[in-house]
Amino acid sequence: MKSQQNTVLKEGPVNWELIRLKDVIVEIINGFACGRRDDGGIVQIRMNNVTIDGRLIFDKFLRVPIPNSIDIMLLRQGDFLFNNTNSIDLVGKSTVFNEAPFPCTFSNHFTRIRLKTDQIIPEFLLYSFLILWEKNYFRSLAIRHVGQAAVHKKYLVKLKLLLPPLPEQKKIAEILTTVDEAIEKVDEAIKKAERLKKGLMQTLLTLGIGHKEFIKTKLGQIPIDWKIVKINDVADVIGGKRLPKGNRLVDDLTQFPYIRVVDFKNMKVDQNNIKYLDMDTHKKIKNYTISSDDVYISIAGTVGLSGNIPTILNGANLTENAAKLCNLRNIAKTYLAYVLNSKIGQNQIKSFVGRAQQPKLALFRIEKIKLPLPPLPEQKKIAEILSSADQKLELMRERKCKLNRVKKGLMHDLLTGRKRVRLDG
User: Fold this and answer.
1) Tens digits of per-residue pLDDT, 364-378?
2) Best exposed site among 82, 183, 202, 234 by fewest CB in 10 Å?
3) 269 and 358: one domain?
4) Of all helices (H) and strands (E), which one includes residue 320?
5) Tens digits of residue pLDDT in 119-131
6) Containing domain of residue 302, as a range?
7) Domain edge (last residue) among 164, 187, 210
8) Last residue of a domain, one of 164, 191, 211
9) Percent of the chain with pLDDT over 70
10) Band of the pLDDT at 79, cuts 50, 70, 90?
């Protein structure tokens, strides 16, 4: 028996009404399954078209045969889409269908809800669901299957919500939508900057800086005075170490940080969730460390993530799912990291990994990766130019994180009535 006690809040302002979702629903139906592509068919909204923050995106889309029940399955403005089937962490993703450049229908992974818009606006329901998703409400509601979780309509409609009067709902949604639009603009700026950096990287690693004569190589065109080398010509490749059986990572801050693949991010190490070793565990694997002079590369799971170690983590222990490129010879560490992250490096890594079910990059294959090698001063200049582009990207990402924090705070304040909006007039 599923508990139905979760609400956005248990009690609120005196003029807010506690309702069940079924009280404000006109129609609720599930979408349809279709495994067949049809370029002349209709666009079907699928799970990858909805972000975890409730946005509907069309970066990629699938056209499927038009169903016989198209009049019923066609989406229209204001339709609320609830992701009823997904992994346990993602079930409950929701969005509002407003505008699209083409007619759309929706897959069986979604439940479409049409609302009584004289009582609730779809955007208010969306922000309410985002809070519930954050609180793992839909996870608790889901029936679990192998690799998937599902929320049945009969449980969904019993959800309790606190509704402010319609004018207040609209004002709350307007405020939160404004923040969402700011986040979307930053997102677009980040994507544009990433594309520009990618192009800049390709140009610098094939044309260099100020060259006029070039030669063709297996890696493509490079300046005539550059070399092609293998990693084992310029570095030693040494793997990390698995935790000894019976030993565990700890959250408490110790002198012995342990870097995992999940900590690798944007050619750096994300220090927000670093785990540590106790003294006894460290003694057992003390020889498997990485320094700030080295370059890391992930070799299992998410393969090919490369970057540099910050000084504060110099001497940290390294996971067995990564390797270090150390004892660098005639190559700048940041330049090496950029080459490995470029199309030149990533294509070779993909070819070495193949299509194994559990991707793994062998150390001896890393040694064979070929690199374009300019003179050391030019390497450093290339790395400096690309680092400058990365710094601008980092500022944009920080701006996005700040806006997300603002949105989260506003959602909790406005949707619970802790802060009231001022209505015009």
Assistant:
1) 999 999 999 999 999
2) 202
3) yes
4) none
5) 999 999 999 999 9
6) 227-373
7) 164
8) 164
9) 96
10) very high
